[in-house]
Amino acid sequence: MEILEKENLGTPEQAADPLRRNILLCGFMGCGKSTVGKKLSKLTGRPFVDMDRYIEKQQGKTIAAIFAESGEEAFRKMETQAVRELAQKSGLILALGGGTVLREENCRILRESGILFLLDVPFPALKERLKNDTTRPLLQRPDREEAMQRLFLERMPLYRKAADQVVPAGAPCAVVAQRILEFLNAEMP
Q: 10 and which of 14, 44, 50, 129 could share a cystine (Cβ 3.0–4.6 Å)?
């Protein structure tokens, strides 16, 4: 139930309704944001949007191509624009890119639109999940493992600061999705 067309994503008025607040998933690359988001979509009937796919569709090229042609800073600007657009919608399950919460502006906008969950996976598990990945621009380098660990150590404090709730996410995606639903059910009146 992945939805990318703007007209299917709710209105700003609906976003004010606590029951229609967006479910926002953040975390390090490989933590399962997209997989858990799709599972949550099936369980709740809410539309799922993968922020990276949303940007790719808007730009007509892959994230890797954007990085190669325009650089990371240009991509981060596109990401902030996507955050602005998607935060105006309601009732979404939104898988954020791994670097989305690095900008305070993005965090501020996202906090207004929904509940931000950090999918927390230990570094050794992430390393295993990403060992054969060739699609992530920030890992395409000779010192891959060192770069990945450096990014992980830099980003985890920012993810924790941004998150409303930290969810242990080393388990299968169905278990992680259920943990998020349990939290939401406990929080809703």
A: 14
CA 38 from centre of chain: 12
Amino acid at 59: Q
Euclidean distance between CA atoms 48 and 38, whole angstroms: 6
Given a contact cutoff of 8 angstroms between Cβ atoms, the answer to whether 91 and 20 are in contact is yes
Domains of the chain, by residue range, sit at: 10-187
- Model pTM? 0.84
Count the neighbouring beta carbons within 10 Å of the beta carbon of residue 64. 14
**Amino acid (1-letter code) at residue 163:** A
Q: Rounded to an integer, what distance in angstroms lies between the CA atom of residue 91 and that of residue 41?
A: 10
Measuring CA to CA, which residue among 47, 30, 61, 31 is closest to residue 136?
30
Alpha-carbon distance 3 to 48, whole Å?
A: 6
Give yes or no for a contact between 4 and 92, defined as CB atoms under 8 angstroms apart.
Answer: no
- Tens digit of each residue's pLDDT (9 = 90 or more) over 13-28: 444 445 579 999 999 8
At 125, which amino acid appears?
A
